[in-house]
Design goal:
By secondary structure, the chain is an alpha+beta fold. Helices cover 37% and strands 11% of the residues.
Length: 300
């Protein structure tokens, strides 16, 4: 299967930094520049937490993953049994966590998540439930091609899948769209439901070596991150960008001209926000709200 990829405003290649070597939030000048604390510089933004115990990190991953699903449920991203998030396991790096087949996003708890091996078979350590075959085919190939990626998110949100029918990237028509400047690709072929490995490989190739998102033509969106929080926020942000683009196109079709953010300004904005700590932090208000609304059940 051939793969055709269109990428917005390509930037020079950047070295991919493995998750374990993401600098502490306190030392990330780009991240800390987003907020202002006290004059002595003691107040800092909280970024991605670090762990010395892999088992503690595993539990943290599962809790945040379950919250991401509940957030997706609130956004209406579920459609039947479609949609999945996967996260690489901190204890067994060749394994990853996925959602059980036909479990509503809005009901997900940490204990519901399933641990699968590199071949997609359910193993001990998590919920003993079957998973979506198409989800494994897509996610496993992305994880295989991108060892820097810890989490992958893909669902069929209405705005993302509608905009995907054009086979085009979103334009830089809003400040929030700049989250994806130079980091968004388009998979311009649709091989149907991903029940064969070839389709997963094609999607992983279209995503590329350092993009954070891809629009799958006639299918939907896929986002990746160094944390499940990042992947979840990016999916939400891209779906919103697709919504804005669809409304802008409707206005433009009636004679209202669009104003596109210049490459210079888009690059400046991207340099300010395209930070793993920032995209992680963007999701924390939603995480806290989900925990509060569920009475802590999401963490169980």
């Amino acid at each position: 299967m051939s793969t055709t990829t269109t990428t917005t405003q390509q930037l020079p290649h950047r070295t991919v930094v493995p998750h374990d070597f993401i600098p502490p939030a306190e030392s990330s000048t780009v991240f800390q520049a987003l907020a202002r604390g006290d004059k002595n510089g003691k107040l800092k933004l909280r970024g991605i937490p670090t762990f010395t115990d892999p088992l503690a990190k595993r539990q943290w991953v599962r809790e945040h993953m379950a919250a991401a699903f509940r957030f997706f449920g609130k956004q209406g991203y579920g459609e039947g049994v479609s949609g999945h998030i996967s996260v690489r396991d901190p204890v067994l790096p060749e394994h990853f966590w996925m959602n059980p087949f036909a479990k509503h996003f809005s009901l997900m708890k940490a204990s519901d998540l399933v641990l699968v091996d590199a071949n997609g078979y359910v193993v001990e350590g998590g919920n003993q439930a079957v998973i979506n075959e198409a989800g494994f085919m897509i996610h496993s190939e992305v994880h295989r091609a991108r060892p820097d990626v810890m989490a992958v998110a893909h669902t069929h949100g209405v705005y993302g899948k509608t905009w995907s029918s054009f086979g085009k990237p979103v334009e830089m028509i809003t400040q929030d769209a700049c989250n994806f400047y130079g980091k968004l690709s388009v998979y311009e072929e649709h091989g149907g439901i991903a029940l064969a490995q070839d389709e997963g490989i094609a999607i992983a190739n279209a995503l590329g070596k350092d993009n954070i998102a891809c629009i799958l033509q006639n299918h939907g969106l896929i986002t990746v991150g160094s944390t499940v929080d990042e992947a979840a926020f990016l999916f939400y942000s891209l779906d919103k960008a697709c919504h804005s683009q669809l409304m802008a196109e409707a206005a433009a079709a009636n004679g209202v001209p669009k104003k596109i953010i210049t490459d210079k300004v888009a690059q400046f904005t991207a340099d300010s926000v395209q930070d793993p700590h920032n995209f992680y932090l963007e999701f924390q208000p939603e995480f806290e709200l989900v925990v509060e609304e569920s009475g802590g059940k999401v963490l169980q």
